[in-house]
Amino acid sequence: MSQQPIGFLDSGVGGLTTFKAALQQLPNENTIYVADEGHLPYGPRPAAEVKHFVWQIVSFLLDKDIKLLVVACNTATAAALPALQAKLAIPVVGVIAPGAQAAARRTTNNKIGVIATEGTIKSAAYQAALREINPNFVITPLATPDFVTLVEAGRYQDPTIQPIITQTLQPFRDAHVDTLIMGCTHFPLLRPFIQNAVGNEVSLIDAGVAAVDSVVALLDHYHLNNYDHHQPSHEFYTTGTTAHFDKLAQQWLSQPTLHSQHLNLGSD
To which pathway does this protein belong (predicted)? Predict the structure, then answer.
């Protein structure tokens, strides 16, 4: 048994979709969540810059003695996951491979769409992961950076955004995809709008939720589960404004008493 916390990192509040799934599947685990809102968005940034930010956060989390790291950000996964897994002595879980595997299991016509940030799409990480599973997959990737902006602005329940999302996602109807990977952990907050845009016959894959299955398996494999049934601790940090993070996190996690701490990562 290990009472050490699980560390989560993301560029903003989007990773809370993964975090929420982890809370549901692992209710005894202590956690630390870091939102790098001071550098949001990650998508347009060069991969080397994203990797730099990620290592700053990881250094902070390692000082907190985490037992497992969840990179709850697709852009950060694409930029930094291999290096993290090679250099860290703890298990590291990204969101791209689990998302690709979930999509591969779900599709019936081998036509899979991917929506993500510019950085993730440019990296071709999803395309590579999917083609490694089945080279015959027909993949339609699309960068949708405005979706991140909508979520971070707190508009993920605003019905006036439906036309924007519908128009943006029209290429997936034209391509007849039957499975769409939401390749950014912000996007599940827009799930009803995305589903309406592509049609109910299209399966939506939440890559972050798929990653939690990997977390569960790794905790079991390395005997790292926390079986202490005392109230777990959950710490939240943001490099941005705590009031902004708290408002969105309280809404999404239904925790009105949630309060984050500001994290200063020092010089960039």
Answer: Cell wall biogenesis; peptidoglycan biosynthesis
User: Is 116 an annotated catalytic residue?
Assistant: no
3-class DSSP state for residue 257? coil
Helix axes 207-221, 96-106, angle to 10 degrees: 110
Dist CA 39 CA 36 (whole Å): 6
Whole-number pLDDT of residue 266: 67
For residue 178 the two structure tokens come to 């039957």
- Dump pLDDT digits (tens) for 154-172: 999 999 999 999 999 999 9
- 182's enclosing H/E stretch is strand 179-182
pTM of the model: 0.92
Residue from 26, 32, 73, 211 carrying the catalytic annotation = 73
Query: Cβ neighbours of residue 110 under 8 Å, at least 6 residues apart?
Result: 134, 136, 137, 138
Helical ranges in the chain per DSSP H: 16-25, 47-63, 74-87, 96-106, 118-123, 125-133, 145-152, 162-168, 170-174, 191-198, 207-221, 242-253
Above 60 in pLDDT, residue 253? yes
Q: List binding-site positions for substrate.
A: 10-11, 42-43, 74-75, 185-186
Question: Mind listing the pLDDT tens digit for each residue in 58-103?
Answer: 999 999 999 999 999 999 999 999 999 999 999 999 999 999 999 9
DSSP character for 231? Answer: P
Rounded to a whole number of angstroms, the distance between the first and last alpha carbons of the chain is 37
Question: Taking a C-beta distance cutoff of 8 angstroms, is the pair 54, 84 a contact?
Answer: yes
Catalytic one of 165, 184, 190, 207: 184
Residues forming the annotated binding site? Answer: 10-11, 42-43, 74-75, 185-186
Q: Is 184 a catalytic residue?
A: yes
